[in-house]
Amino acid sequence: MTISVLVVDDSPIARKMIRKALPADWDISIQEAGDGDEALAIYRSGGIDVIFLDLTMPRMDGFTLLEKLQQDDLNCFVIVVSADVQPGARERAMKLGAIEFVPKPIDPQALREVLREYGVMV
Prior knowledge:
CATH architecture: 3-Layer(aba) Sandwich
CATH superfamily: Response regulator
Distance between the termini: 12 Å
Number of strands: 5
Order of helices and strands: EHEHEHEHEH
Number of domains: 1
Mean pLDDT: 94
CATH class: Alpha Beta
CATH topology: Rossmann fold
Helix content: 25-40%
Low-confidence stretches: none
């Protein structure tokens, strides 16, 4: 079964790095968003299984997007991928519904372990 992935980051280079870190053998379709507003519209269109989310973005940041996803009864996995590794940022993201917080630059093996741990990938 194909898993629908949304990669949300204002940096095209960061989005590319996340895509490259995803397991090559993972059956996925990928969409991208450059900010929280765009990501929310894609999410609301339906069918997103996993979101990889940066926290620091213009217009709507990752924290605000997480709040809005909770208001929409979040029904997908959100993995934060951020350079903001302060304990407060991690704690806040987790309270807002993220299942995990992965620091940038992203470690493909650590990401694979997170996906397995939550049953998103076997």
